[in-house]
Write a structure and sequence with these properties.
Oligomer: single chain
Strand content: 15-25%
Structural class: alpha+beta
Number of strands: 9
Shape: globular
Number of helices: 8
Strand order of the largest sheet: 5-6-7-9-8
Order of helices and strands: HHEEHEHEHEHEEHEEH
Largest sheet: 5 strands, mixed
CATH topology of the largest domain: NADH Oxidase
Distance between the termini: 54 Å
């Protein structure tokens, strides 16, 4: 997917808890397994695709699958689950599937029984995936209304800023405003100091770090849409990455000498 397609999915995404009464096609299942394998290979996490997730849920309706996001017990694993999980979710949304981040409203014991998880790993959260019903259910409407009574602007997400944000960073923060967050709590705090933007959460060993990973992905998508490439450092500071200029044959000290001789 292109950056523009990811951003399109950001605007399309909405948590869906009511699905059609049919499971995903074999083609979709195969694609989701490939996506899970790609994430696991790149991130070191352990995402698991479960074809029929309905036994682990009560308030969700219809037939749906799920991706169980697992990994070692570390802050980085929590954060990466958010980052890579949101990437998978946006790809699903772009291709017309319904999705939902789920942290607590599922039966975790049943989920553990459905997967083969090493003892040194744990479940962080799950993502439901299925064909959404055409219209929002009464429950979906009520939950959306309850959880989105107020919306936090990106300015309110800053603990400190010693200067005006660059335009590209503003574009990134506007996409952070649209990032999903557990019960819409939005715990991620940003700081802009001496030209460096950084992000953090209190209690990083909690599931708040999942929100941090999601926010970091949204910020990257936003700045890239404004023509700035970059990455998050291990300390969760954003640094711009500029492509190296390619030197052509004849450039360098020798060519400078030649130019000086010509000027003489």
């Amino acid at each position: 997917m292109t950056n523009e397609e990811y951003i399109q999915a950001v605007h399309q995404r909405r948590s869906r808890r009511a699905y059609q009464s049919r499971h995903l096609s074999e083609d979709y299942k195969a694609i989701l397994r490939e996506m899970v394998e790609a994430v696991n290979e790149k991130s070191g996490l352990h995402f698991i695709f479960v074809e029929d997730a309905t036994p682990a849920f009560r308030i969700f309706a219809g037939k749906f699958s799920m991706i169980v996001m697992c990994g070692p017990d570390s802050q980085k694993a929590r954060e990466d689950c958010g980052y890579y999980g949101e990437s998978v979710m946006l790809q699903c949304v772009y291709h017309g599937l319904g999705t939902c981040w789920v942290g607590g409203t599922y039966n975790e014991n049943k989920t553990y029984e459905m997967i083969d998880l090493p003892q040194n790993e744990r479940i962080y959260c799950v993502m439901t995936v299925g064909y959404p019903k055409e219209k929002l259910s009464t429950l979906e409407k009520a939950m959306y209304k309850t959880l989105h009574k107020t919306s936090k602007s990106y300015q309110d997400m800053f603990d400190y800023a010693d200067d005006k944000l660059p335009e590209a960073y503003t574009a990134g923060m506007k996409l952070v405003e649209l990032a999903p967050s557990a019960v819409n709590r939005r715990p991620v705090k940003f700081r802009y100091e001496n030209g460096v933007l950084s992000a953090s959460v209190e209690d990083p060993y909690s599931d708040k770090s999942i929100d941090l990973g999601i926010a970091k992905l949204h910020f990257l998508l936003g700045v890239r849409s404004a023509g700035v490439n970059g990455r998050w450092t291990y300390e969760n500071a954003f640094e711009e990455v500029h492509p190296e200029r390619i030197k052509f044959s004849g450039e360098g000290a020798d060519s400078n000498d030649e130019n000086e001789n010509e000027e003489d």
